Amino acid sequence: MPRNLTHQAKSLLLVVLLLLLWWFTPSFVKRGTEVIFSEFQAPAWTGMSYLKDLRSYWTNWGSSKEDLISAGMNLSRLNAAYVVRNQQVDSMERELRRLEGYFNLPSYPEYQYEVARVIKRDLTAWWQVLVIRKGINYGIEPGQAVIFSGGVVGRVQSVGAYTSTVELISSPHFRAAGHFESDDRPVEFRGGINPGLRAPTGTVSTVPVDLVASRKDPVRLTSSKLGGIFPDGLTIGWVYNLEPSSDGLFQTGKVMLDPRLQSLREIAVLIPIETRGDPGR
C-alpha cells in the first residue's frame, strides 16, 4: 500500500511540475508549439474527412435503380426551380444597377464565397471552434467572416497551410456588433458558455430601452457592417426577452442561436474580392 501511495504521489508531482512549466513558458513558444502541433495533425484530419466522403460515395454507388431514378427526378425539379430563381435574381440585379445609377448610390461590397467542409469540431463549454478543410491554399485569412444558410457562423481564428480554425459565435470569447431587424441602432453581441448538448445561446447588451421583445413577438438580431467583418443583415439569432441592465440606461437579453451550428458539415468563408489573391489550387 505505501508503495502505491508513493507512485501516485510521484505521478501527481510530475503533473504539477509540467503544468507549472507550461504556465511559465513564454507566450511566443506556446504559439509556436500550437502551430506546429496543429500542422502535424492537419493531414490526419483531412485524410479522415476524405475517407468519410469516399465511404458516402460507395454507399450511394450501391443504391438501387429505383432510388437513383427518384433522386434524378428530385434533382430535375431542383434544377428547374434554380433556373427560375436565377432569372429572378438577374432581373433584380439589373433593377438594382439601374436604381444605383439613377440615384448615384454606392454598390454593396462584393465577396467571394469559399465553401469548405468541416473536418473537426471542438464544442466544449469554453472552446467553440470548427476546423475546415481549406487554408492559405484557398486565400483564406484570419478575421474573415464565416456564414451558412442560417446566417452567421463565426470568423476565421487561425489559418494553416491546408486547414483553418473557425471561432463560432457561440464561443464565450466571441464579440460582434449587431442591430435588430427593425432598428438600425448598434448593439453588442457576445457568445456564451455553451455545453455541447444544449442549444447554443449568447447575450446582447446596450439595447435601447424602447425596444420590446417577447415570446409571442421575438425580434431578430442581425449583423452590422459597423464591426468591419460581416455584411449587414445576416441573422445572428432571436431574442425573446429583454431586461433592464444594471445601470438602467440600456437593456440586455439572451440570444437564441441556430441549433444547426453544432452539426454543420459545410460552411462558406466570405473573402472580399478586392483583397483576394490567386490561390494555388
Walkthrough of the structure:
By secondary structure, the protein is of the alpha+beta class. It is built from three helices and 13 strands; from the N terminus they run αααβββββββββββββ. The chain folds into three domains: 2-61, no CATH class; 65-107; 112-281, Rod shape-determining protein MreC, domain 1 (Thrombin, subunit H, Beta Barrel), CATH 2.40.10. The protein has helices at 2-23, 27-61, 65-103, and strands spanning 111-123, 128-132, 145-148, 151-159, 164-168, 175-180, 187-191, 201-207, 219-223, 235-239, 243-244, 251-256, 266-272. The strands form two sheets. A six-stranded antiparallel beta barrel has the order 1-2-5-4-3-13.
- Largest sheet, order of strands side by side? 1-2-5-4-3-13
Distance between the termini: 62 Å
Number of helices: 3
What is the CATH homologous superfamily assignment of the largest domain? Rod shape-determining protein MreC, domain 1
Q: Which parts are unreliable, with pLDDT below 50 for 5 consecutive residues or more?
A: none
CATH level-1 class of the largest domain: Mainly Beta
Helix content: 25-40%
Number of domains: 3
Which class best fits the helix and strand makeup? alpha+beta
- H/E element string? HHHEEEEEEEEEEEEE
Please describe the biggest sheet, giving its number of strands, its sense, and whether it closes into a barrel. 6 strands, antiparallel, barrel
Name the average pLDDT. 82
Shape: globular
The fraction of residues assigned to DSSP E strands is 25-35%
CATH architecture of the largest domain: Beta Barrel
